[in-house]
Amino acid sequence: MAGTKREVINEHLQINDQIYNMTCLSIGNPHCVIQLDTISKDLAEEIGPVIETHPLFPNRINVQLLKVLNRNNIEIEIWERGAGYTLASGSSSCAAASAAFKLGLVNKDLDVHMPGGIINIKIDSDGDVYMTASVTGVSKGIFMDDLWAQIRNFRKLKKI
Predict the structure, then answer these.
(1) Where are the domains of the chain?
(2) Which residues contact 113 (CB under 8 A, 6 or more apart)?
(3) Among 99, 13, 88, which Cα is nearest to 57's?
(4) What's the whole-model pTM score?
């Protein structure tokens, strides 16, 4: 994030003549969490790309629109940097839960609801975040022989 090094909690961000409160953090990758009373896919698609490429974020940023349902449940819509609107994301879930906890809005054990599913997040006393969810297969494919040959050659070159 551009500017002085600091913890960014509930700071103002102006987008399209609207002021939003943002909390920014890293879960190994950068996230900007915007808490709102109403969230939607349309809003994520409208302001997500503007926030992602805002001058405050020279390396771009992931965006989560956060709605607190109660102390144990939040809902998010996700704009992922470089990918666009996303149905579900583990790092986005961790970031949104951490931001909501840091803002005092939720308990340490909560569920994150997304269009693509629900992830449980637990935050320990040190602030470490643990994510648990089910795994669902979404596709099945076949790698062609020439791809396998390239992988074998790469491994030989790198001595993996």
Answers:
(1) 8-134
(2) 69, 73, 74, 75, 76
(3) 13
(4) 0.85
Instruction: Indicate whether 151 pLDDT > 90.
Output: no
3-class SS at 98? Answer: helix
Instruction: Give the list of residues 6+ apart from residue 48 with CB closer than 8 angstroms, or none.
Output: 63, 79, 84, 85
The residue written with tokens 């320990």 in the block is 124
**What's the pLDDT tens digit per position in 63-92?**
999 999 999 999 999 999 999 999 999 999
Q: CB–CB of 11/76 below 8 Å? A: no
Q: Is 115 exposed, middle or buried (0-12, 13-18, 19+ CB in 10 A)?
A: middle
Q: Which CATH number fits domain 8-134: 3.40.1160.10, 3.10.310.10, 2.60.120.10, 2.40.30.110?
A: 3.10.310.10
Question: Residues 66, 39: contact at Cβ < 8 Å?
Answer: yes
Nearest to 121 by CA among 131, 113, 135: 131
d(CA 96, CA 90): 10
